[in-house]
C-alpha cells in the first residue's frame, strides 16, 4: 500500500548553490512506515533506558542522548545503500543500533560489559558497527576522517559515499572548513551533515555563530536545509545528496532538529532554555508523534498495530536492559589487549611514563 507523503507539509527545503533540490513529495509503503516508526520508537526507548542506567550509576563517563533527533538518523539510514558509510560525534547510541548492533549490545557497551559492541571498552562515545566508523570524542575531529572514508570509497570505486556528521557546536571548527576544501578539490563522495539541534552544549547557535545558516557555510559547496523532525524529508534529502556527491561533488546538508535532554546527562538543560521551549517542541514538532499522525491518516497502519508495536518495543528494551545489568565486565588483563589492530609483540606504553603493559589479542576487539 502506498501513500503520497508531502515532505513540504512541515517546511520546504532550502538550497544553496543548487538550481534544483530534492523532490517535495515521496512514496511511503506500509513496510517503510512500520520500519521507520519502529526504529524511531526503539531509539527513543533505548535512550530512556540509557539515561536510567546513568542515573543508577551503572554508566560511567559521558552519556549523550539522541532523544528528539530520531528522524535525522532514521531518515538518513533509510536512504543509505549497503556500500555507504557514516561517521559521527558522540551522540551515537541510535546510530549504532541502526547500523546493526542490538539494543543489548548498545546498553552493554554503555555499562562497560563484555557483551557490548566494543566489549565495554568504548563506552558511550566509541561504539562501532559495519560501515559505522563510530562516535568520536574530540569535537569536529570526525569530519576530516569522514572525508578520508569518502576518499577510500573513491579509491575502491565501489560507488559508496560517506556521511560525516557533526553538530552546530562543532560547525566553527577550522578542520571542518579544511575538509570542505579538500573534498571539493578532490571531488570526494562526502556528505557533510550538520545536525543543528540549536545548542552547542549550553550555547545557542545564535550566540556561537555569525552565520547560523549552516547549509550555506561550505562556500562553493552546494547546500541543503531540511527539517530534521520529518523522517521522510530527511530521507528524500539524503537520497538527493547521495546522487549529487556521486555525480558532481561534495555537499553540505543541514538537518534542523532539537534535543530534549541536556547536552549530556550531567547537564539539566534548563539554564540556557526554558522548560516551556522544550515542551512546545514536544507538542508541535516531535518526530515520532508527527509521523504517527501522518501514517495513521494515510491508512498505512492502524492504532492497534502501533500500540502492539509500542508494547513489543518496550518489552525488547526492558529485556535488553536486564541483560546489560546482568552481563559480566571484562577482566583487567583485557584492558591492554587489541589496542592495535595488528598485534604488537612485547610491551606497550601505559597511562603513566615508565608504565608498560603487555599487549595481546583476543582476535575480537569488537563484537560484530
UniProtKB/TrEMBL annotation:
Asked if the Swiss-Prot or TrEMBL record annotates the protein with the keyword Transmembrane helix, the reply is no
Q: What is its EC number?
A: 1.2.4.1
Q: Where is the Dehydrogenase E1 component domain?
A: 38-328
Swiss-Prot/TrEMBL cofactor(s): thiamine diphosphate
Q: Name one Pfam family in it.
A: E1_dh
The Gene Ontology biological process terms listed for this entry are:
pyruvate decarboxylation to acetyl-CoA
Reaction equation(s) it catalyzes: N(6)-[(R)-lipoyl]-L-lysyl-[protein] + pyruvate + H(+) = N(6)-[(R)-S(8)-acetyldihydrolipoyl]-L-lysyl-[protein] + CO2
Q: Which GO terms describe its molecular function?
A: pyruvate dehydrogenase (acetyl-transferring) activity
Q: Which domain of life is it from?
A: Eukaryota
Q: What does this protein do?
A: The pyruvate dehydrogenase complex catalyzes the overall conversion of pyruvate to acetyl-CoA and CO(2).
State the NCBIfam families in the record. Answer: PDH_E1_alph_y
Q: What is this protein called?
A: Pyruvate dehydrogenase E1 component subunit alpha
Amino acid at each position: 500500500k502506498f501513500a503520497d507523503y508531502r515532505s513540504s507539509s512541515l517546511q520546504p527545503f532550502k538550497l544553496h548553490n543548487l538550481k534544483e533540490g530534492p523532490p517535495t513529495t515521496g512514496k511511503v509503503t506500509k513496510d517503510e512506515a512500520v520500519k521507520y516508526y519502529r526504529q524511531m520508537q526503539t531509539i527513543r526507548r533505548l535512550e530512556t533506558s540509557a539515561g536510567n542506567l546513568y542515573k543508577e550509576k551503572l554508566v560511567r563517563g559521558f552519556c549523550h542522548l539522541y532523544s528528539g533527533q530520531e528522524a535525522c538518523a532514521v531518515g538518513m539510514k533509510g536512504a543509505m545503500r549497503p556500500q555507504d558509510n557514516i561517521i559521527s560525534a558522540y551522540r551515537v547510541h541510535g546510530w549504532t543500533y541502526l547500523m546493526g548492533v542490538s539494543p543489548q549490545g548498545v546498553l552493554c557497551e554503555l555499562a562497560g560489559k563484555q557483551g557490548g559492541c566494543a566489549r565495554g571498552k568504548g563506552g558511550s562515545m566509541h561504539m562501532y558497527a559495519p560501515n559505522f566508523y563510530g562516535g568520536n570524542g574530540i569535537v569536529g575531529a570526525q569530519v576530516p576522517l569522514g572525508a578520508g572514508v569518502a576518499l577510500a570509497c573513491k579509491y575502491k570505486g565501489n560507488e559508496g559515499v560517506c556521511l560525516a556528521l557533526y553538530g552546530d557546536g562543532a560547525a566553527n571548527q577550522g578542520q571542518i572548513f579544511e575538509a570542505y576544501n579538500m573534498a571539493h578539490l578532490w571531488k570526494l563522495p562526502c556528505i557533510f551533515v550538520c545536525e543543528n539541534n540549536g545548542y552547542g552544549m549550553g550555547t545557542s547557535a545564535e550566540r556561537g555563530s555569525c552565520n547560523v545558516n549552516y547549509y550555506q557555510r561550505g562556500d562553493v559547496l552546494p547546500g541543503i536545509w531540511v527539517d530534521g523532525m520529518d523522517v521522510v524529508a530527511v530521507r528524500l534529502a539524503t537520497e538527493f545528496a547521495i546522487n549529487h556527491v556521486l555525480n558532481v561533488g561534495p555537499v553540505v546538508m543541514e538537518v534542523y532538529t532539537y534535543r530534549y535532554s541536556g547536552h549530556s546527562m550531567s547537564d539539566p538543560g534548563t539554564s540556557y532554555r526554558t522548560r516551556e521551549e522544550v515542551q512546545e517542541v514536544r507538542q508541535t514538532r516531535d518526530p515520532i508523534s508527527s509521523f504517527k499522525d501522518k501514517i495513521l491518516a494515510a491508512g498505512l497502519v492502524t492504532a492497534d498495530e502501533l500500540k502492539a508495536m509500542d508494547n513489543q518495543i518496550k518489552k525488547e528494551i526492558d529485556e535488553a536492559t536486564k541483560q546489560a545489568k546482568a552481563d559480566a565486565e571484562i577482566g583487567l588483563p583485557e584492558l591492554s589487549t587489541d589496542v592495535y589492530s595488528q598485534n604488537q609483540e612485547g610491551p606497550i606504553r601505559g597511562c603513566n611514563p615508565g608504565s608498560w603493559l603487555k599487549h595481546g589479542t583476543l582476535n575480537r576487539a569488537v563484537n560484530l
